[in-house]
Design goal:
Blueprint: H1 6-21, H2 34-45, H3 52-60, H4 63-71, H5 84-103, H6 113-133, E1 139-142, E2 149-151, E3 157-160, H7 163-170, E4 180-183, H8 185-193
Parallel strand pairs: 1-3
Antiparallel strand pairs: 1-2, 3-4
Helix pairs in contact: 1-4, 1-5, 2-3, 2-4, 5-6, 6-7
């Protein structure tokens, strides 16, 4: 696994995969190929809004140039500030890495306890947001071998899975996430119909 920060590890792994797959490979982001995703990441880190014109301008530079820019790392502030870097970029790169991996037939990566710990931390935010969107029903997140998290009313929908998979589901990657959904039928239907994407 190495000792590099999560955001740098995920960045490098994603860059390697983008280089391997090329600019036209699919992603889980609707309407985006790998070149679109790389352009989005470059624009995001340089605080540009990502308009259609800006995306087109970045894509026109070519995937190798976008990958080279991503490999240099983000600007120092705020992206490299200790404590903030993992929260701001760790999950961004994890989720987009999975967007590319899973759209191209690569499954879940086991034995990533640091990613699971970070994902579990962030399920607090994602779970609250999802629970608000399915009111009056509640939501429970249940990782294997751990204490569940509950949001809203008891007896609602129950989402089972590894923390990274729960986060992928809650961030809109439902079909790709390896989870199991149980609980009250109306609450389950509400969750399945809710827009929880980020």
């Amino acid at each position: 696994m190495g000792t590099a920060p999560i955001d740098m590890r995920e960045r490098e792994a994603l860059c390697d995969l983008l280089a391997e797959l090329g600019p036209d490979a699919p992603t889980l982001c609707e309407g985006w190929d790998t070149a679109d995703l790389a352009a989005h990441l470059v624009l995001r880190e340089h605080f540009k809004r990502g308009t259609d014109e800006q995306m087109a301008a970045e894509k026109a530079k070519g995937l190798p140039a976008l990958i080279a820019r991503l490999r240099t790392g983000p600007p120092p502030v705020p992206w490299r500030v200790p404590g903030l870097r993992t929260l701001m970029n760790g999950l961004e790169y994890f989720i987009h890495h999975e967007d590319v991996r899973r759209a191209n037939g690569l499954g879940r990566r086991p034995d990533r306890p640091d990613l699971d710990a970070l994902a579990w931390r962030m399920t607090g935010f994602a779970g609250r947001r999802a629970a608000r969107r399915i009111r009056p029903y509640g939501l429970e997140l249940r990782p294997p071998g751990g204490s569940p998290r509950r949001f809203g009313s008891p007896g609602g929908a129950v989402l089972h899975g590894e923390p990274t998979e729960l986060l992928l589901y809650l961030s809109g990657r439902r079909d790709a996430a390896e989870v199991r959904l149980t609980g009250d039928a109306d609450a389950v239907a509400a969750l399945q119909g809710a827009d929880t994407a980020v």
